[in-house]
Design a protein that fits this description.
Layout lengths: L38 H26 L24 H6 L10 H22 L11 H24 L2 H7 L13 H9 L1 H4 L18 H10 L13 H12 L5
Helix pairs in contact: 3-4, 6-9, 8-9
């Protein structure tokens, strides 16, 4: 028996031999119309360059036109009307309807959006037809049109029904007031008026009560009889408490 007879040498095919290595040259896609370049790195490089241009443009826009600031958030201000960004306005409008708010808030906040977005995610798997024409794919086309129409309608309704004048006033940065929050007048104001006029008398759904120029008698008359959108009989205290409140509001000034 000769030496080495019966021995076999096994090589790992995952390790290419040096003499068989080829340079990283993109494949020739010329035989496929419209696909004449490699996805990596040629196509991705162009995509990244376009994305970089848009990103730089967006950053320049944010620097030139920064977001407007409002006054410091006050969690005790119940008169503040919140408003989400434009891309969530349709969900904001949905929560205004009776079947999606109050005791049914879970339906409006979780169930309906969950079903809608879940159906959008499942649409490509339900309609797996090879056709590209919208008329040949009625299910996918109809569902997408319904989703777009619903979002557009709810967004439009939210913009049309929102009280923009009140929102503009409540978000304004106003000068600090010299309000004595330990006084009896402020305690009466807090109980009856702060919900509409703000804790700092700077206004909310109602006008601001700083520097009104009104006498205590005029303030007391408005508190009893109302004025404009303010109904009569808002203040429920005694005449002595009303006098204290009227003097407090009449003397309220900005710093």
């Amino acid at each position: 028996m000769h030496r080495g007879k019966g021995m076999k040498f096994v090589g790992d095919s995952r390790i290419p031999a040096a003499e068989h290595r080829k340079p990283n040259i993109p494949k020739d896609y010329s035989e496929y119309p419209g696909k004449t370049e490699a996805f990596w790195p040629n196509f991705l490089l162009k995509e990244w360059m376009v994305g970089a241009v848009f990103l730089i443009g967006y950053l320049c826009l944010t620097v030139a036109h920064p977001s407007p600031l409002e006054k410091i958030a006050d969690p005790t201000d119940t008169a503040y009307i919140p408003l989400p960004d434009w891309y969530f306005l349709f969900l904001y409008q949905l929560l205004k309807y009776t079947y999606a708010s109050g005791p049914y808030n879970v339906i409006g906040a979780l169930v309906i959006p969950g079903l809608a977005f879940g159906a959008l995610l499942l649409a490509p798997f339900i309609d797996r037809g090879p056709q590209r024409r919208p008329s040949k794919r009625p299910f996918a086309t109809g569902f997408m049109l319904l989703a777009v129409a619903s979002i557009f309608y709810l967004t439009w309704e939210s913009v049309a029904t929102h009280d923009w004048e009140a929102a503009k006033k409540q978000g304004q940065i106003v000068a600090e007031s010299s309000v004595d929050k330990e006084s009896d007048g402020y305690k009466h104001y807090k109980a009856s008026c702060a919900g509409c006029h703000g804790n700092e008398l700077s206004g909310g759904t109602g006008p601001k009560l700083l520097d009104t120029g009104l006498s205590p008698e005029e303030v007391a008359k408005i508190a009893k009889e109302g004025k404009g959108n303010m109904p009569p009989g808002v203040f429920k205290g005694s005449d002595e408490e009303l006098k204290v409140l009227a003097e407090f509001i009449s003397n309220a000034k900005t710093k």
